[in-house]
Structure formats: structure tokens, C-alpha cells
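Can't attach files on this board, so I'm pasting raw text. These are the components:
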Amino acid sequence: MKVIYLDHISGNPLHPQVKEAIIDYIHKDGFGNPVSQHSIGDIAMETLEDARAKVAQLINSNPQEIVFTSCGTESNNHAIKGVAFAKAKKGKHIITSNIEHQSISRPLRMLSQMGFNVTSVSVDKYGIVNPSDIEKAIREDTILISIMHANNEIGTIEPIAEIGRIAKAKKVTFHTDAVVSCGNVPVDVDEMGVDLMSIAANQFYGPPGIGALYIRHKTEILPFIDGGVQENNRRAGTPNMLGIVGMGKASELARVEMPQRTEHLLKLKKTVMDRLGTIDETVVNGHPEKSLPGLVSFSVKFIEGESMMMMLDQEGISISTRSACASGSLRTSHVLIATGTDHATAQGTLVFSYGIDITVEDIDKAFEALRKSVAFLRNMSPLYKKG
Amino acid sequence: MQYSEAVMDHFTRPRNVGTIENPDGTGEVGNPICGDMMTITIKVKDDRIEDIKFNTFGCGAAIAVSSMVTEMAKGKTLEEAMKITKESVAENLGGLPKNKLHCSNLGADALHKAIMDYYTRKGGKGSETKEAEKVDHIGEREGKCYCPYCDIGLLEPAPYCTHCGKPTLQHH
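---
Top answer:
C-alpha cells for the assembled complex are below.
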């Protein structure tokens, strides 16, 4: 049975050209350490800097402002803890939102236990942060604002540029978690006015296990992983060269192919929305326009998400009930609760996330299976009124 | 996939789905806020469960548990059916993942509630002793309901914590 993979938000398949680039590098004797001062080291260093330039080009930054990390989570930890510890003497107040990924909210919880103060602003029913709420929350001792660019569960895109202008005027360091947006929608660090930005390669057809943190020149931040001189003293440890080669290639492809990819994804999104309209008592989560093109979150009333996911899995359709990072958790999604979705409806949530490898026919097949499982489970549900 | 073959079998081909018209006993447990809700209806003849059906809102484990409980109880005397426990349900399903064990609790509870309902309706033997079982919200304080394990406030009294899934009820 051919599996239709509709869980791209948990990790994209490798782009064939990314695969090729990684294999080419292996054949080029790319085992050297880029900081070594000999010819084998030079091969690695050249490749490393080439990849760095490609990532920089994708987000319109200077290559020197890119630090490679092991994943989006490390980038987020680095940004939050690195700034908090570097600026602790100036102040201990941090502003965030209540729909952030766990790799932001958990480090912040740890910091608040260590004496930092965290203000978490609420979102509207679409999951959008109001920039004036951020402005009102800024105090004398505010050292950092961290608001995600796009939400990983509902796809809503936040008004980062507006928040960036506020942060700049108030001279507060501004970080955005762009892990699920970067490489999928246009991202420009200057237009967005961010000082720090987290990205991950497996969100745009690069390999897992490699990410980056954009650090604007002169931003006060400490290293998260201490040790050697790699990454200009900002991230110690031998760089993951295979991952970096893949991320560089994936960045280049994302930049060049973005218009065609977006067109394709929007066509798929329209198909998903049309088909969803034919199933009664469903609710679409997130903002109708300001959202990622490759993701639709929706709730099917009277039934529960995991049982739908399991039924679809039996039919060869891979989907998710929420983000992979929280899939083992029985907690109702904090994002859906933040947007005011009631608990019972939130329980019936599915996330369809698709990519350039998915066709309209795939979506149709997925909906055929979904319709079947919804009917099956509703027939069993004490909440669904039959007839 | 984290589930055993038996769970997958009962989940994909659930037995005894539905509601019995004019049942002799009904047991309803859980609520959609917890993520699981189960209704069991029974038909009793000569102190034996002649027919049993369920309706469930919940995860794969909850559905498999419902199906298994009804299969285990069907044809048994009421006394035998009262002895079905969450452990025996989970065991018959070849085990459940740790974070889903509370689902098997729910199945046995719904069955026992349906049997108690039968006794109450009959008003005869058994009803007094069964009624005597006291159920408390161990997480209740100042009129509000808290999960005793993760200490998170619950929106309304629920038998299972909406956050950690652990039972908030204590059977005496």
C-alpha cells in the first residue's frame, strides 16, 4: 500500500537534489573538521561557508549572522537562555505569547523558576497576537520578546514586522521562532525587524538534525553549547557537515522554487477546504488568510482525533492530531485552548500538512478515508445525534 | 504504533456497538472534556447479561476497551460481571500503553454502573449494598476540582484529569 504522507509539519521528505548534494559531499572526502588548518579541513570549511551563504540568502541576512545548530529546538533554547543570561544584569523581564512551541515555553518556565519574570500575552480566536498588547507589556526591565512567526499547530502567521518596530523603538531584543515558516513563506530578517530567528532544515525538505539561529550583529547573547571555537565561538562542537550541506542546498532550492511551491500548496489548500466543506459539523482552526499554505487544522465534532488518526493510518494515510512534539501527551492542545476552542471540539482535531510531493489526487484519497472513518466513529459516539 | 494486536482488532472491528432500546440498565461515565465518554446499556434475563451494547467517544484504546468489556460481560451472571476489573480488561487486550491505562478503568466503571442501575431500577437485592459505595473527588477543595496528581484546576468535576489523564475519583 502506498502511504500518503500528510504530516509534513512533523518533518518533510528530503528533496532529491538535497539527497544528491549530501551524497556528493560524502564522495568528496568531506570527513574533515572545518576548523582544522590543513587541506582536508579546507574542503569542509569551504563547504560550510558556502552553505552558510545560502541560508543567509534565504532570509536576507549577512552570512556571519548565521550559526548552525542541531535543530529548531536548540535554536530556540539558545536564543531564550543565551539572551536571558547575557542580559540578566540589565533586567529579568521577558515577553512571549501563550501559543509558543514547547521549546520556547519550557525554557521560559525554567527561567521563571530561576527568578526571571515572564509575561505571556493572549491571542485572538485565530491565534493572532495583538502587537499593542506587547507594547503595553514592555517594562523598564524587559530584555527580550519572543513571538513565533507561524504557529506549528494551526498555521497562523503573526504580525512580526509590527512587533519588530515596537521592539526596536523600545530597544528590546526581539526573537522569532520561524521554524515552521522559514523556507515555506518569504522571510526577511530586516523587514521583520528581528534580532534573532530560529530555523530548521527539515521544515523545507532538508535533513533532520540541523537548524540555525540567526543572530543580528551586536546582539547580546551567550553561547548555549560551550567549548571550542566553532561557529565563531557562538556554538561549540564539530559541525554536522552532512546536515549543513543538506541545509544549504535546501535553502537555495526554497528561495528559487518558492513561487511555484506556494502556488501548488495553495491549490492543495483549496482542495482541502473544499472537501472539508462536504463533512458536516467541522471547524477550521487558525486564520483563514494569514496562515501557512501547507497546513490546515480542523476539528471534527463528536469524535476524537487519535481514533481518526488510527483509522486513517490503517488506510495508509499518515496524519497528525497535533504537533509531533506533543503527540504522546494526552493534554488538550494549549494552542486550541488559547484560541477559545472548547475542550470537546479540541479533542477532535486533525492537522493535514502537505508539501510539494503531494497531489490533488492524494488529498482526495485522504478525504475518502476520512469520510469513512468519521461516519464509523460518529456511529459509535454517544455525542452524535443520528438521523 | 503503540497498541497491541488485540487492541487494534477491537478498535477496527468493535463488537456490540449501539444502544439497546428499553434497556434494563444504563451506565454512563466520563465526559468529552476528559477526552473519553462511554455509555453501556444492558438487557438482563435470569440474573444474566443477555445483551450488552456500547457507545464511546474517545481514543483508540477507549474504543477497544469498550468493545472488550462488552464481549467479556456478555452471557455472564451479574455477579461474575461485577468481578470484571480494569486489570482483567487490559490483560485481555494484551496490555495498554501506560498513558492509556485509565481507559480500561472507564470500561469497567461503565459496566458496573449499568449493573448498579439495573439493581436500583429493580429496587431489590443488591441495590443497598451497591449504593453504599462512596465515590469522592479526591482533588476537590474550596468547591473547585483539582487534579491531585498535576494540581491543575479542572473546569468541572471530571473523573479523569483533563491534563494528565489520571483518575480524580476515589472509591471507598
